[in-house]
Structure formats: C-alpha cells, structure tokens
Amino acid sequence: MTTAKGAKSPSMMGPKVLFYSLLLTLQYGSQPLISKRCIGKEVIVTSSVLTCEIVKVVCALILMARDGSLKGLAKEWTLMGSLTASGLPAAIYALQNSLLQISYRSLDSLTFSILNQTKIFFTAFFTFIILRQKQSIQQIGALCLLIMAAVLLSVGEGSNKTSSGISPEQVLFSGIIPVLVASVLSGLASSLCQWASQVKKHSSYLMTVEMSIVGSLCMLVSTLKSPDGEAIKRHGFFHGWTALTMVPVISNALGGILVGLVTSHAGGVRKGFVIVSALLVTALLQFAFEGKPPSSYCLVALPLVISSISLYQKYPYLDKKKKKV
User: Fold this and answer.
1) Where are the transmembrane segments (predicted)?
2) Which of 92, 230, 294, 299 is the most buried (most CB within 10 A)?
C-alpha cells in the first residue's frame, strides 16, 4: 500500500490496537453517564477541564517513565519539533471547538449532526493528502454507512432544537459555514497527529503532554474575559467539587491518552469508527442503568455500525502494482 515514508498501513490492526480501541469505546461511551452522576451543576466547567488536562499530563509522564522514553527526552526534545507535532494540532482543535459552539446556536440538531459528521470524510481526505493512505471502494462505502449511523445516533439524542426566528443569512454564515470549516479542521488536525506519530515518530504520550499544555494555556487566556473566569474569581477554582468529581475527570484524562494511542497505531479514520461505536455503548448503558430504552434511531444505526466496521476491516486498499509483483 502506498503511504508516506514511515507511516503504518491502516489495514494493520494487531491485538494491542484492538485492545486500545475497545478501551476507548467503553470509556467514551460511559463518560456521559459518569459525568452526569458525579459532576454537580455548581462545578465550573473550566475548572474540571483544566484539572483533566493536568491529570492527563501526569498520567502520560508516568507512562513515559515506565517505558523509558522520559530519560532521553531532554536530548531529543526541541521547541520547533514540539510546535510542529503538537502545537499546530492543538491550536486547530481549539479553533474547531469554538466554531462548533458558534454553529450550534444557529442550526437545528438534524442539520448540525449531518454536517458535523462530514469530519469523518475530511479525516480520510487529509490522511490521503498528508500520508498517502488510500481507501478502497468498499472502505469508502463503509465510511458512508458510518456517517449515516452517526447522524442517526446524534438525532436520536434529541432534535428539539430548532432554528426558528433565525434569518437564512445567519444560518449560512453563523451555522453552516462554521460547522463545515470545523469538520475540515477536525480532519486536518487528526491527520497531522497521525503524521507526527507515524512519520516523525513523535511519542503519543509526549504529544498528549504537549497538546494538553497548549490547550490549557489557551483556556487560561480565554478565562480572562469569560463567565467561567469570573465565576472562578468569585467562588474559587474548586467550587462545587466533591470527591466523586475526580472520577469523570480521571476517566476523561485516560480517554485522552487512549485517543492518542488509537490515532498513533490505527489512524484518525479508525478513531472515527471507535467514537461512533461508543455512541451505541452510551445508549446501552442508559438502558441498563437509567431504564431509558434505545431509540428507534439507535436500533437502525446498530447494524449500520457493525456493517461499516466489518466492511472497512475486510476490504483494505490493495496497491495493484504491488499485487501484480
């Protein structure tokens, strides 16, 4: 398969990658329920996010010390290499999140969900542009099935939000365009992370540390004029916290590390499969612990997800020239 020098073929899925993917699916799927039960309404969002980033850095450093990569960090680490590998994706992700917040205010849930899922296609597109990793016809079909499933699952969470009272111009410029740009940025950032880890051999743990630091700095700057910043000044950083608040914080931090491992070993496209599969896990856990039955959308999406994963795994792209040889 034709790929950028040093990049791993997306068709390679060893036991370790499957294990990481399974853990990420379970973590991502259970996170909403854990957060709902353990984080009170009084907790300031910025305080939980910043604490999560700190925990993520600590966990990543411990793992680096365990595998021995922390020892040679002082000799190998450079500011330019760090900014290229982690700083740029972190800045892109920060911009993407801001655009999503803007677009969600101007779009109904259905439109937002459909447009937001195009990030899976853009991830595949940028993976081809940056890493030269091609998709087979069957894999492209699998991506289409996955996007359909993702839209159904997103809509199934509730489509009460409407865009009534909003002008068509505002829908276009404050809704559609921002979410499409955010999807492009998501695909670009995911591909850049994969390029840094697979081609530049940048450790996924080190990338986690660097991206967490950059993201935290951006968030700290934003608190200077944000409502959360004012709330922290007025009530204190840990306002509303209990011992249980640390449970979802630690879980989310471990999930961030798993995202880096899955992206590094399996690629951004497969990470998309994991995230969509996790939506099904959330629906099943809601039924098991809250008695909320899966919606009809979820029941329709389930075979689509299973079929897309099977197709993508079974029919990887094969280079015809190498095949003849």
Assistant:
1) 45-65, 110-131, 140-159, 171-193, 205-224, 236-260, 272-288, 294-312
2) 92
Closest CA to 190 of 129, 114, 271, 253: 271
Residue 70 φ/ψ, nearest 5 degrees: -75, -30
Helix axes 119-131, 177-198, angle to 10 degrees: 40
pTM of the model: 0.78
Nearest-angstrom CA–CA distance, 168 and 177: 12
Residue 107: both structure tokens together: 């779009």
d(CA 269, CA 11): 11
**Tokens found for residue 52:** 């999560």
**Left if phi > 0, otherwise alpha if psi is -120 to 50, otherwise beta: which for 132?**
left
DSSP 107: S
Buried b (16+ CB within 10 A) or exposed e, 147-174: bbbbbbbbbbeeeeeebeeeeeeebeeb
Residues near 211 by Cβ (< 8 Å), separated by ≥ 6?
A: 86, 89, 90, 93
| Residue 121 CA neighbour count, 13 Å, CB half | 16
- Residue-wise pLDDT for 29-88, tens only, equals 899 889 888 998 899 988 998 999 999 999 999 999 998 888 878 777 888 888 888 888
Q: pLDDT at position 156, please? A: 64
Radius of gyration, CA atoms only, the chain: 20
Tens-digit pLDDT profile for residues 86-137: 888 888 888 887 788 678 777 766 577 667 778 888 898 999 999 888 888 9
Which among 44, 26, 42 has a CA at the least distance from the CA of 34? Answer: 26
Q: Which of 272, 22, 274, 319 is nearest to 125 (CA)?
A: 272
- Nearest in space to 211 (alpha carbons), one of 58, 97, 53: 53
Q: What are phi and psi of 318, to 5 degrees?
A: -120, 125
The number of residues making up the chain comes to 325
Local confidence band at 325 (pLDDT 50, 70, 90 cut-offs) = very low
Q: Is 292 helix (H, G, I), strand (E, B) or coil?
A: coil
